[in-house]
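<goal> How does this chain fold?
<sample>
Here is the protein in question

***
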Amino acid sequence: MHTLVASVVIRAGDDVLLVEEGKEAVRGTWNLPGGRVEAGEDPTRTAVREVGEEVGADVDLLGFVGAYIGSDAFVDGPFIAVTYRGELSEEPRTVPTDTVEAVEWVNPKDFAGLALRSPYVRRAVADASERTLPLDVVRSVVE
């Protein structure tokens, strides 16, 4: 079974906002802000909720980037990441939590020096630079 997650590519100039994972199984790896879609939750709501929890700022979703299928040691199997492009309404807060060690703006040119949690991070960031689709291409039937 695939785990459904929602994530957000957030840019400031050339830089992308990444979170350093604090969960034991993936501690020290870098990821896009996001997390698991809870039962009955729409992925857009998950994306907004997770950015608020991990980054400490509200996000406006600007469009849909793509859906990515991969595998990850933490979710113990394959995942599908529904990924959006967004913009923060304020500066991120960098207070460590039990799930996030740090929040940093990183230039994608520097990704080679980072332990990215999954190859999808690099692909989603590149895709967000090339195109963003309207939010309504993802339709929720969750009630």
